[in-house]
Amino acid sequence: MYKFRNVKNSDLNDLLIIENNGFTPDEAATKNALIDRINTINDTFIVAEAENNGEIAGYINGPVINQMYITDDLFENIDKNRTEGGYIAVLGLVVSESHRNQGLAGKLLNQLDLIAKKNKRLGVTLTCKATLIAFYEKYGYINHGLSESTHGGQEWFNLVKIL
After folding, report:
1. Does the pLDDT at position 129 exceed 90?
2. Positive/negative CA dihedral, 55, 27, 31, 122
3. At CB < 8 A and 24+ separation, what contacts does 149-154 make?
4. CA-CA-CA-CA dihedral for 88, 42, 127, 73, to nearest 10
5. 3-class SS at 54?
6. 3-class SS of residue 20
7. Residue 100 — very low, low, confident or very high, per pLDDT cuts 50/70/90?
8. CA-CA distance, 77 to 56, in Å (whole number)?
9. Which of 39, 94, 116, 153 is most buried, judging by how many CB atoms fall within 10 Å of its CB?
10. What is the chain's alpha carbon radius of gyration, rounded to the nearest angstrom?
11. Sheet strands side by side (includes 87-90)
12. pLDDT value of residue 76
């Protein structure tokens, strides 16, 4: 049903549409932020492509960081991923409207887990709104409480999955 692959530069326009449909304008990654992620963290930027028509159905991305929790500066500035260790910090997990409620978000999380294990990461970390805590807990994430992040003017919670 879906093929998973690393992001390509040619995906940018489709990613922007999905990003802006999945997040509020204050939360959504800018075009420049997505370009930076495509070029800097290609190894942890996974795209789900629908096998029947090749359209991008969703994606997950984030840099490898040393600390357990996401900080707001990561939404603007990221460094190239180190080869081993650290935590993958999910900055974006988005599914296009036509592919929602089909389990794709969970499959993208599982794909990122495989990459994390292969590269001996300590875990995967993310922030989410209170309404999504139960969803992430189904995939093994533990709620570590309120985040210091105020990205997009929202209240976020730290969720971490230790590998």
Report:
1. yes
2. negative
3. 149/70, 149/71, 149/72, 150/72, 151/27, 151/72, 151/75, 151/127, 152/23, 152/24, 152/26, 152/27, 153/26, 154/26, 154/27, 154/129
4. 100
5. coil
6. helix
7. very high
8. 25
9. 94
10. 14
11. 64-65, 87-90, 123-128, 157-162, 142-146
12. 85
Angle, alpha carbons 38-139-145 (nearest 5°): 85
Which residue's structure tokens are 């939360």?
27
Q: Cα torsion at 126, 31, 7, 138 (round to 10°)?
A: 20
Determine phi and psi for 45, rounding to 5 degrees. -125, 100
Structure tokens at 73: 């500066």
For residue 129 the two structure tokens come to 């709104």
Query: Residue holding tokens 């359209």?
Result: 55
Structure tokens at 58: 């969703």
Residue 161 identity (one-letter amino acid)? K
The two structure tokens encoding residue 13: 């326009």
Separation of alpha carbons 14 and 78, rounded Å? 22
